[in-house]
């Protein structure tokens, strides 16, 4: 039966290698990355059903509420559809035609960069900047700048969020005391933003990012270098999970 594809037999074996409990901190983003990979690799064929919500949530180690938000994103992107009734569930839709100009442009932009290199370099710079700011401390004026940059990311329209988010991270890089680090971060962030422009803007991810921003700034202001580095690493990992899921 089509509904058994994800949980028994060869289909189940294939999914076992990919669907695993996500790490704490980025449950939504990492769960989305894993299910996107399953769909894009064709491990659940077109027209067949993903494992039941209860099973998917258990495999990924997330709540069913979070899983439903992940499935909502997939539905909005035209990758799956929900069917009701006795044999209902979430079914994989046929792949959309990617031969359009927009699809060609996306492929060119992604092919022009080494995604893993960009993501790793960004993580090194962000964790380094956060650790330096926390370890060396900030002046009163620098603290005001950082608090203001964080405040400017609150309650903004989604279309404006990425610019404000970029300014917050650039502020941290500048306050690290290393002009070279700040310049390198600006360059890699421009590439990251180009990649982010290729994927949908997800409200759930923006809300999660805001909580991570607040925790990161709090650690920096508290002089907690280890905590600041960990908060920055976790934040970068969430973005990386989305980019890998949609683009890798």
From TrEMBL:
Annotated HTH gntR-type domain ranges read 25-95
Pfam families referenced in this protein's UniProt entry, alphabetically: FCD, GntR
- Name the source's superkingdom: Bacteria
Q: Has the keyword Transcription regulation been applied to this entry?
A: yes
InterPro entries in the record: GntR_C, TF_FadR/GntR_C, Tscrpt_reg_HTH_GntR, WH-like_DNA-bd_sf, WH_DNA-bd_sf
Q: Which Gene3D superfamilies match?
A: GntR ligand-binding domain-like (1.20.120.530), Winged helix-like DNA-binding domain superfamily/Winged helix DNA-binding domain (1.10.10.10)
Keyword set includes DNA-binding: yes
List keywords of the entry alphabetically: DNA-binding, Transcription, Transcription regulation
Entry protein name: FadR/GntR family transcriptional regulator
Q: Which organism is it from?
A: Streptomyces andamanensis
Organism ancestry: Bacteria, Bacillati, Actinomycetota, Actinomycetes, Kitasatosporales
């Amino acid at each position: 039966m089509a509904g058994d594809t994800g949980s028994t037999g060869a289909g189940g074996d294939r999914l076992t290698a990919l669907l695993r409990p996500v790490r704490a901190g980025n449950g939504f983003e990492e769960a989305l990355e894993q299910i996107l990979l399953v769909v894009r690799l064709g491990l659940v064929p077109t027209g067949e059903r993903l494992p039941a919500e209860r099973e998917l949530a258990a495999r990924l180690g997330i709540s069913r509420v979070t899983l439903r938000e992940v499935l909502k994103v997939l539905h909005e992107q035209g990758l799956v559809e929900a069917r009701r009734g006795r044999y209902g569930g979430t079914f994989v839709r046929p792949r959309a035609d990617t031969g359009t100009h927009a699809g060609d442009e996306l492929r060119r932009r992604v092919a022009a960069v080494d995604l893993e290199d960009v993501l790793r370099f960004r993580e090194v710079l962000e964790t380094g900047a956060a650790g330096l700011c926390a370890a060396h401390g900030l002046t009163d004026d620098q603290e005001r700048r950082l608090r203001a940059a964080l405040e400017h990311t609150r309650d903004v329209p989604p279309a404006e969020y990425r610019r404000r988010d970029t300014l917050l991270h650039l502020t941290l890089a500048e306050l690290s005391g290393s002009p070279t680090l700040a310049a390198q971060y600006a360059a890699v962030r421009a590439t990251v933003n180009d990649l982010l422009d290729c994927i949908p803007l997800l409200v759930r991810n923006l809300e999660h990012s805001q909580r991570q921003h607040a925790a990161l700034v709090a650690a920096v202001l508290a002089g907690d270098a280890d905590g600041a580095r960990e908060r920055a690493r976790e934040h970068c990992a969430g973005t990386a999970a989305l980019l890998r899921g949609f683009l890798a």
